[in-house]
Design a protein that fits this description.
Layout (H helix, E strand, L loop, with lengths): L4 H11 L15 H8 L6 E3 H16 L6 E3 H7 L5 H7 L6 E3 H10 L4 H7 L6 E3 H20 L1
Antiparallel strand pairs: 1-4, 2-3
Length: 151
């Protein structure tokens, strides 16, 4: 699924602690819990692989409104009314009018998953997001959100 840049940034931030994106989290998940859940090797940092493993299914599930394991164009447009047909077609590999999770993952992996957004949070470009980088990114997004609300 092609998501607006802002939504992808919020999704990635959710994975690394953003409190403002409750639509992607369950009410029992704290920001710290999400970071710890994504940190599979328990080293206190998130790699791109860890972020993709947690983030890509969340993106797919955000679009799969009826939870049947596929996304239709109607579901995509329910999330983003401007969702473009060619973005859907690029992911509907078997041309059945639905994008399965497997199709979505296949295309996402070819495109690097959440690599561009990961790089924004990985301020020191060392290939991992640590707590300080996550917190700094969250603070930046919260400030931008506050500024947008007050405008």
């Amino acid at each position: 699924m092609k998501l607006p840049l802002t939504w992808l940034a919020l999704l990635l931030a959710t994975i690394v602690l953003l409190p403002a994106c409750s639509s992607v989290r369950t009410s029992t998940e704290s920001d710290r819990d999400l970071f710890l859940e994504a940190d599979k090797n328990k080293d206190g940092q998130l790699t791109l692989a860890e972020v993709n493993a947690m983030g890509l299914p969340r993106v797919f599930n955000h679009f799969d409104k009826n939870r049947d394991g596929t996304v239709t164009m109607e579901e995509a447009r329910a999330v983003d009314p401007d969702f473009e047909e060619h973005h859907f077609s690029e992911r509907d590999l078997n041309r059945d009018g639905k994008v399965s999770f497997e199709e979505y993952i296949q295309v996402a992996k070819k495109r690097g998953g959440l690599k561009k957004h990961f790089a924004v949070v990985d301020a020191n470009s060392d290939g991992a997001i640590n707590q300080a980088e996550a917190n700094a990114y969250v603070e930046k997004l919260e400030a931008e959100t506050t500024a947008n609300v007050t405008e």
